[in-house]
What does this fold into?
Amino acid sequence: MKNKKEAVIIGAGPAGLTAGFELLKTQKFAVNIIEKDDQIGGLAKTVSYKNYKYDIGPHHYVTESKEIENWWKDIVKDEFIPLKRFTRIYYNRHFFLYPLEPINALLGLNIFESIRCVCSYFRYKIFPKKVASYEDWLTNRFGKRLFEIFFKSYTEKLWGIPCSQISADWAAQRIKNFSLGKAIFFAFFGKMFKKYTPRTILNEFYYPIHGSGSLWNKVGKKIINSTYGSINLNEQVVSVEHDNQKIVAVLTKSMLNENEASAQQLKRHEGDYFLSTMTLRNLILSMDPLPPSDVIFAAKQLICRALITINLIINQEHITPDHWIYIHEKNVQTIRIGNMNNFSMMLRPNKQHSAIILECFTFMGDPIWLKTDAELLDQAKNEVAKIGLVKKELVLDGMVLRAPDAYPIYEGNYKLYLNIVYDYLECFKNLKLMGRNGMHQYNNMDTAMISAMNAIKPFIEQEEISDAAILKNIITPREKFKQE
Ligand SMILES: Cc1cc2nc3c(=O)[nH]c(=O)nc-3n(C[C@H](O)[C@H](O)[C@H](O)COP(=O)(O)OP(=O)(O)OC[C@H]3O[C@@H](n4cnc5c(N)ncnc54)[C@H](O)[C@@H]3O)c2cc1C
It folds into this structure.
């Protein structure tokens, strides 16, 4: 492509699409986005089934960055609805407010349990534990008993490892901007200072009226409608060729007709710059030539938790007022239920019905991952009835989605392995990592987008420097005459 530098982007999720869109704006780059899925949006996409719309777990749009909020608003305009978050924990057939409020939690428990919780709460307020894990962090905050009731089984089902092995970094990242002082101030004076109150404290968020993915579809359209932008769907990057500390090309295999011989012919995409949102593990294992064995070993330790969402159509107009319900019941696989009805009216064709999402976390290859869709739908029907939320006979239909790399796991020594991988990849100056799995960071959409904006900065700067150098070396006929 004449005069344009070719940027190859792996993945059309929020980070890949943001990077592509922003690079095109500079008019210095041609953008080639490669996506293995048959639609764009990554984990933030919305899938349609019989005209009922389901996110991969409902995605709410909330950020403390004005720049990101305005970016979203510029894309979706008046299709962005402000909502007030309502979320509860369902435990022992009782609803508890989420985030957990100790007084509300105690009122919902029996008197003996409440006394136990209060004693344990003060025990850890007076003598806090040294914080080495997620378990220690939560115990200090809520006391051991409240931790056991409201966090332990949920968190362990989510991550598939004991809370004592989960790094305290995860808690720190989830609530990184939390400040008790700020929270108390806005609780008392929030009404007076509503204009200045962060959305996260007001519990307000935005939602695109046609589903989370509708925002990313609009971004995708802008990219493919521009002269120098393209998105190649159903192509998986399987090899990353490099030479002399530069990435030269990526090779892709077609995800269509995977069994046919033609699909085995790899397609080559060359570029000047490369940006990756594929998992760090897969990126390292795709490098050609392969990295040293310690880097390969480190990358293999960076694993993700997989997610299965079972998406149901229910013959009932109203189930609960919640956006999400955290399910703290033992003996069920579901850990969270999202109620799409409460996000937007436009997500279901029949207003008498409800569209709900049951989330189950697992590792690929575990027995639940290997279940057929019919078995999972049956499981979902039984579980909504078992926890007493929906009668089995009201479940009309449903479908199953699987996300193999949904949650990057922060287990024990993950930081050590992450640094080994980062150090190795840093020597490739025309490669940048971004996004959730691309950096193995527990990013939400806004942080994934910020990482994309930061990733493209050095490439833009480099092109600006080259342009300035070219301009400096151009000698006009008048200057040439003067020199002679
Ligand atoms: C259940 C759940 C609920 C969430 N809720 C929220 C929420 O409410 N609000 C919020 O802000 N965030 C939420 N998130 C997080 C949000 O989904 C992510 O932050 C965001 O999608 C990250 O964007 P990304 O582009 O980095 O990664 P992804 O969305 O994962 O996109 C990466 C893309 O790369 C593609 N890809 C991977 N490997 C290859 C390859 N080898 N070749 C080609 N393509 C490849 C993938 O198919 C994917 O499309 C949630 C996540 C989950 C799992």
User: Anything to note?
Assistant: Residues 175-181 have pLDDT under 50 and may be disordered. The first helix runs from residue 14 to 25. The pocket of flavin-adenine dinucleotide is lined by residues 10-16, 34-37, 42-44, 56-57, 59-60, 236-237, 277-278, 282, 307, 359, 406, 435-438, 443-446, 448 (CB under 6 Å). Residues 304-408 form a domain with the Polyamine Oxidase; Chain A, domain 2 fold (CATH 3.90.660.10).
